[in-house]
Amino acid sequence: MRTLLPAVVLLGLGGCHPRSQAASPARRDSVVTRVIGVRSDSAVDSSLAVALRQARERSYQAATHVDTIIVHPDTLKLRVGQIAELFRSLTIEARTTGGRRVEHFAPLFEVGDRTIAGFEGPGLQGRKVGLTWLVISAFTGDEPDRKILARSMVWILVEP
């Protein structure tokens, strides 16, 4: 009986040891999933959407008055990997037949060979050594049968 009592005490103490408690599975809190709806017609969203629609309509209207697009310089030089912000690197103006500046003109940019240069964020990136072009026209909409009323071209020279 004397050997049995120390064995029972050791087993009892072993059950109180922190390592034995860590081995027991941890209690988990219950997780509740809820679908949260977000209204997109809030005052801020709708006023922004209205402003964007109005700006788009103004640019469509402006495009009908564009006769000539003047761009300076006529050549944009880039190095491979360099990014040039278009509106800092180029001066672009749209003019009417009478030579007046067209307000709300929104230019549309199209690169000839996108392996040589292509769009990266707000700029144009030199991708490989070569010569290509950038066509600038009046943005008249996304429809496939849009009419390009005026256009201008800038050479893009990408150097090593």
Description:
By secondary structure, the protein is of the alpha+beta class. The protein has a domain at 67-159: Immunoglobulin-like (Sandwich). It has helices at residues 4-16, 18-22, 43-63, 86-89; strands at residues 68-72, 75-79, 83-85, 91-95, 107-111, 117-120, 123-126, 130-138, 151-159. A 4-stranded mixed sheet has the order 2-9-8-5. It has a 3-stranded antiparallel sheet with strand order 3-7-6. A hairpin with a 2-residue loop joins β6 (117-120) and β7 (123-126). The chain is globular and about 45 Å long. The chain starts with a helix and ends with a strand.
CATH class designation of the domain at 67-159: Mainly Beta
Spatial strand sequence of the major β-sheet: 2-9-8-5
- Biggest sheet record: 4 strands, mixed
The total count of strands amounts to 9
How far apart are the termini? 92 Å
Please report the number of helical segments.
Answer: 4
Structural class by SSE content = alpha+beta
Helix-strand topology string: HHHEEEHEEEEEE
Percent of sequence in beta strands: 25-35%
Short recap of the structure:
It is built from four helices and nine strands; from the N terminus they run H-H-H-E-E-E-H-E-E-E-E-E-E. With 160 residues, the protein is of the alpha+beta class.
How do the helices and strands line up, and which of them pair or pack?
Elements (H helix, E strand, L loop, with lengths): L3 H13 L1 H5 L20 H21 L4 E5 L2 E5 L3 E3 H4 L1 E5 L11 E5 L5 E4 L2 E4 L3 E9 L12 E9 L1
Parallel strand pairs: 2-9
Antiparallel strand pairs: 1-4, 3-7, 5-8, 6-7, 8-9
Keywords:
4 helices; Immunoglobulin-like; 4-stranded mixed beta sheet
